[in-house]
Structures are given as C-alpha cells and as structure tokens.
Amino acid sequence: MCLICVEFQKQRMTPGEARRALGEMIGDLDTDHVEQVEEMIAEAEDKDERDGDNS
After folding, report:
1. How many domains does the chain fold into?
2. Assuming Cys at both sites, which of 19, 23, 31, 48 could form a disulfide with 53, CB separation 3.0 to 4.6 Å?
C-alpha cells in the first residue's frame, strides 16, 4: 500500500488532499495502483456527496 492509501484510509486526508497527492506521485506509482487509488477516492467523493458533505 502506498502512503496515500494508508493516510486516506485512516481518514487523515480528505478526498481532495488524496487526489492532489496522487497527482504529485502519479509518476512513481504502478498504473494499476493509480487506478485503484482513483477508484477509492471517487467512491469517497460519491459517499460524501450522497451524505450531503461537499467539503
């Protein structure tokens, strides 16, 4: 697991922070893992939107 995954899953990063960190690290990560991280972030954003938390 990468640092983004660890910190995001511990809720130490917001989806926006995780997305920004991914943008900075994208060249260092495996393509498959980038897709997994993007999915994880998108799911969290969808959940926030459903819950009415647009932060």
Report:
1. 1
2. 48
pTM here is 0.83
| 53 falls within a domain | no
Phi and psi at residue 36, in whole multiples of 5°? Answer: -65, -45
DSSP labels, 11-54: T-S-HHHHHHHHHHHGGGS-HHHHHHHHHHHHHHHHHHHHHT--
39: tokens are 């999915």
- Confidence band of 20 (pLDDT split at 50, 70, 90): very high
